[in-house]
Amino acid sequence: MNPNERIAALAALGERLSQPDEFLEALMQRTRFNNAWFTLENQRLAIGAIVEHFLQKDKLEPWAGAYHRYPDGPGKTVGMVMAGNIPLVGFHDLVCTFAAGHKAQIKLSEKDRYLLPYLLKLLKEIAPASEAYFEIVEKLNGFDAVIATGSNNTARYFEAYFGKYPNIIRKNRNAVAVLTGQETVEELKALGKDIFRFFGLGCRNVSKLFLPKDYDFNALLETLHESRDLVLHDKYKNNFDYNLALVMLNRTPYYNNGCVILQENPQTASRIAMVHYEHYDSEKEVGEKIAATREEIQCVVGNSERTDLPAIELVPFGKSQEPGLADYPDGVDVMRFLETLN
Asked: Would you tell me how many other CB atoms lie within 10 Å of the CB of residue 209?
């Protein structure tokens, strides 16, 4: 397949996924049974975001066109260790590898075993030649490069095992949000999406808030309370109850609105059902704190018209879980990495 054929196949897959599909619905039910965090709503959100942001021809063509023309392929074999924190979280890496003309050798996460094989099956039906570009395996072998995503702990093993190969190894990251106290109700509702979508398990979920001194929490807590249905989910409720018990037993100051716990804490990452916050005196101070912890931060959410952080690109409220093709995880350009393999 030449580059244009691969882009056309991806766009056709987007069109296919936009249509009703009873078998896909059944697979989503099976996935939910296998992993209770992957609710039907979250699976549909993930597929919808993939279709809208990754599989549109008018987005694929200029994005791929910004790089060198790739060979007809399949070229090199890129081993991929998929994460399982949110549905189809590694799909962007597959789009990059396919667009670049390389073969993806995929090690699925046990938490997300059913959706991706079906999407690749649909792609094969659309473009039979695409089958040569994908392989799902139990153990990676015979690869030329690696893209592996996991926790900070697993990253150490990845580095030891894959360090001699060209690689991208990703660790834990989270999003942070910068508030000024002038946010509208609509912006706070949108922030709720950044915090709660996928139960906060994604690397682009907001886990920490930077707040001005003397910030009034009332509007924030009241607005976030609109997501109270989260506590109807057993796993989320168990985490909420456990973390609430911890802060109460430790007599740690906190805010609680019945569906999320806000705790003052300098750490970027927070527990499920909990969001950290840290006060600031000036936006310069915020910029310095973000710069000091940049390796822990996936993206920064805020209103660029009210927040003066010239060195930091702000993602609008409500958009943290809607990355585009050029929004590469950890800021590492996957397409440039794949160019080096040619």
From this structure: 23
